[in-house]
Amino acid sequence: MSVAVVTDSTAYLPPSVEAALTVVPLTVAINGVEGSEGVDVTPAEVARALGGRRISVTTSRPSPAVFAAVYQRLLDQGASAVVSVHLSAQLSGTVDAARLAAAEIGPAVAVVDAKSTGMGLGFPALAANAAAADGADAEAVRLAAVATADRTATLFYVDTLEFLRRGGRINAASALLGTALSVKPILNVVDGAIVVRDKVRTASRGLARLVDLAVESAGDATVDVAVHHLDGAERADQLATTLKERLGDRLRDCYVTEIGAAVAAHVGPGLASVVVHRRP
């Protein structure tokens, strides 16, 4: 019996690999009308809503009952254990809900905080799934996710910090600094929290700096890279092409995906992100 791997909808996995995992969606509400991320609410709808006046966009975690039902179903279907890998506890209550559900089900379920989101979560989830497919036991599957999270860097550019400030995902002082100086911020995720990594004056310089920081994060390692965007596929493709040129034969897998509605609600239009996974 194999170990089942669960993640949440903010991993933004490419369709080619998403089907291998069990994905639990977060909830997104536009003006109070709720829907499941990736099922009922699209990132385009959120982007339009954020550009309108008097339109609220909020997100919420899956309930512990939802997680418990998923875990029990997988165990009933023959899984020997479940490893559940989720976005940073500092960005969402999702991992706390998963832990409450795991406590209800028992020791057959282990929960991992990937301390990131997007493919910063996706790469650890995929590593866990690969270990499970190779026949690893639950502890080895869990450790595969933890080790991959430790080797993964998440960098992103946004046009404004306002949406992150509204959602409480970045402190007000950092947001005010960006606004006062009229700069374009580049951020990264450190131990699960969003921090300002650099500031530039224009979008073009921001994207160029994003590439430089991604290459710096790669170091001399062989890497996998994911490029995320919100309503900016052409820009994401250009970023991916530049990264391929800069990283050369050290680059293995390269994914380009649009972020979903839950993260879109907190970053706003204009997002470009690069996630770098250093292979062991």
Overview of the structural elements:
Helix 2 runs parallel beside helix 11 and helix 9 (203-218) packs across helix 10 (233-247). Helix 10 (233-247) links the parallel strand 11 and strand 12. The chain has a 6-stranded mixed beta sheet with strand order 10-9-8-13-11-12, sandwiched between helices. The model has no long low-confidence stretch (mean pLDDT 91). It has helices spanning 15-18, 43-50, 64-76, 94-105, 119-133, 138-150, 162-166, 172-181, 203-218, 233-247, 261-267, and strands at residues 3-8, 22-24, 27-30, 33-36, 57-60, 81-86, 109-113, 152-157, 184-190, 193-200, 223-229, 251-258, 272-278. The chain starts with a strand and ends with a strand. The chain is globular and about 55 Å long. With 280 residues, it is of the alpha/beta class.
Strand content: 25-35%
Widest β-sheet, arrangement of strands? 10-9-8-13-11-12
Strand element count: 13
**Poorly predicted ranges (pLDDT <50, ≥5 residues)?**
none
Structural class: alpha/beta
Spatial shape: globular
Q: Average pLDDT value? A: 91
The N- to C-terminal Cα distance equals 27 Å
SSE arrangement, N to C: EHEEEHEHEHEHHEHHEEHEHEHE
**What is the CA-atom radius of gyration, in angstroms?**
18 Å
| Main sheet overview | 6 strands, mixed
Helical percentage: 40-55%
What oligomeric arrangement do these chains adopt?
single chain
Write the layout of secondary structure elements.
Blueprint: E1 3-8, H1 15-18, E2 22-24, E3 27-30, E4 33-36, H2 43-50, E5 57-60, H3 64-76, E6 81-86, H4 94-105, E7 109-113, H5 119-133, H6 138-150, E8 152-157, H7 162-166, H8 172-181, E9 184-190, E10 193-200, H9 203-218, E11 223-229, H10 233-247, E12 251-258, H11 261-267, E13 272-278
Helix pairs in contact: 2-11, 3-4, 5-6, 9-10
